[in-house]
Amino acid sequence: ALQSRGYQKLVLQVGRGSLPQPQPSSSSAVAVEVFRFKDSLAADLQNADLVISHAGAGSCLETLEKGKPLIVVINDKLMDNHQLELAKQLHRDGYVLYCNCSTLVETLQSMDLSALKPFPPGQPEKFASFLDK
């Protein structure tokens, strides 16, 4: 699905997850780079044309603040799924696309990233002013 959309490289942060085994294929033109953890993902986000992430608030906001298109993949197995609530709201507001693992390929195939709205910049001074009052 990535290759058919013109993507040439996939960078995966797997954390404590199992490392994917490369599948030899002469038809795949998508290079895969895998890492566990980095002190910062800022450079990776800056270089990304598309970010696919879980729906953690920090991950979503950091990606959106960098102006990158975002597909949020929901973990259906979480109890009291706050990630789903966040993903649905960001989607309703027009900032992200969201799916679950079983619909990710379909989402990649049908996505229209031009329909996503830019995320407005944060205004921390408003919060500081509120606290001062």
Give your account of this protein's structure.
This protein is of the alpha/beta class. It has a domain at 40-132: Rossmann fold (3-Layer(aba) Sandwich). The protein is built from five helices and five strands; from the N terminus they run E-E-H-E-H-E-H-E-H-H. It has helices at 42-47, 57-65, 82-92, 104-110, 124-132; strands spanning 9-13, 31-35, 51-53, 70-74, 97-100. The strands form two sheets. The protein has a three-stranded parallel β-sheet with strand order 3-4-5, covered by helices on one side. A two-stranded parallel sheet has the order 1-2. The radius of gyration is 17 Å and the shape is globular. The mean pLDDT is 89. Residues 7-123 form the Glycosyl transferase family 28 C-terminal domain. Its EC number is 2.4.1.141. Keywords: Endoplasmic reticulum, Glycosyltransferase, Transferase. Belongs to the glycosyltransferase 28 family. This is UDP-N-acetylglucosamine transferase subunit ALG13.
Strand order, biggest sheet?
3-4-5
Give the CATH level 1 class of the domain at 40-132: Alpha Beta
Annotated CATH topology of the domain at 40-132? Rossmann fold
CATH superfamily of the domain at 40-132, by name, is Glycogen Phosphorylase B
What is the H/E order? EEHEHEHEHH
Shape: globular
Query: Structural class, from helix and strand content?
Result: alpha/beta
Q: Which whole number gives the mean pLDDT?
A: 89
Identify the CATH architecture of the domain at 40-132.
3-Layer(aba) Sandwich
Domain Glycosyl transferase family 28 C-terminal: 7-123
Subcellular location: Endoplasmic reticulum
Keywords: Endoplasmic reticulum, Glycosyltransferase, Transferase
GO molecular function, one term: N-acetylglucosaminyldiphosphodolichol N-acetylglucosaminyltransferase activity
